[in-house]
UniProtKB/TrEMBL annotation:
SMART domains: HTH_XRE. Residues 20-74 form the HTH cro/C1-type domain. Residues 1-29 are annotated as: Disordered. Keywords: DNA-binding. It comes from the Bacteria. This is Cupin domain-containing protein. Pfam families: Cupin_2, HTH_3. Residues 16-28 have a biased composition (Basic and acidic residues). It comes from Albidovulum sediminis. InterPro entries: Cro/C1-type_HTH, Cupin_2, Lambda_DNA-bd_dom_sf, RmlC-like_jellyroll, RmlC_Cupin_sf, TransReg_Diox_bact_type.
Length: 200
């Protein structure tokens, strides 16, 4: 789940609702028009824009496809300084700020190396807390993606097949096929993944 978040560690505060409204209004679309092209109800879009609900990654991806913007670009902030080729761990860009389900953290974190759109490949450092997932719905995007599990384990669903991957295991698939990630626990799962072109 993704929502309005306060900064944690080096993550910057990010207002998902305000950003979504800004992007929608920039394109001169009403909530109903956006709903019509995404399949997400206008009521849900309204609740997200008011930060009254936190969308799953799959739901937010549907909305952003309708706005023609990637998830990483949606969460991007202006680049400071000139281009660079190395990044310290505190410089990795948070593209899924923490959201809350009641008092519990949603538990999915994506940290990107570099600036969105600056490269033909997108590299992510992903963390899934026990029980966390990308949402009940499968999602897709125009790319190929691959990853390696560094620690913990993760259920990866691609199409109709689900595999439990553990530390040292990897995956590679066409991202146009609907997919989902879920950590069955009991420990956190940490992965490094790549996506090309960077459409996530």
């Amino acid at each position: 789940m993704i929502g309005k978040a306060s900064g944690q560690g080096n993550a910057m505060e990010f207002d998902t609702g305000a950003r979504l409204k800004e992007e929608r209004e920039r394109r001169r679309m009403s909530q109903r028009q956006l709903a019509a092209v995404t399949g997400v109800t206008s009521g849900m879009i309204s609740l997200i824009e008011q930060n009254r609900t936190s969308p799953s990654i799959a739901t937010l991806k549907k909305i952003l496809v309708g706005l023609d913007i990637t998830l990483s670009a949606f969460f991007s902030t202006p680049e400071e300084g000139g281009p660079k080729w190395y990044f310290r761990k505190h410089e990795l860009r948070e593209i899924t700020p923490s959201a809350k389900r009641g008092e519990a953290e949603a538990g999915v974190t994506f940290r990107q190396i570099g600036r969105p759109g600056a490269s033909a490949i997108q590299m992510l450092y992903e963390t899934y807390a026990a029980g966390a997932d990308t949402g009940p719905e499968l999602y897709s995007h125009d790319a190929e993606e691959a990853g390696i599990v560094l620690s913990g384990r993760i259920n990866v669903t691609v199409g109709t097949e689900t595999q439990l991957l553990e530390a040292g295991d990897g995956y590679l698939f066409n991202s146009r096929t609907p997919h989902r990630f879920h950590n069955p626990g009991p420990d956190d799962c940490v992965m490094v993944s790549a996506c090309t072109p960077p459409t996530f």
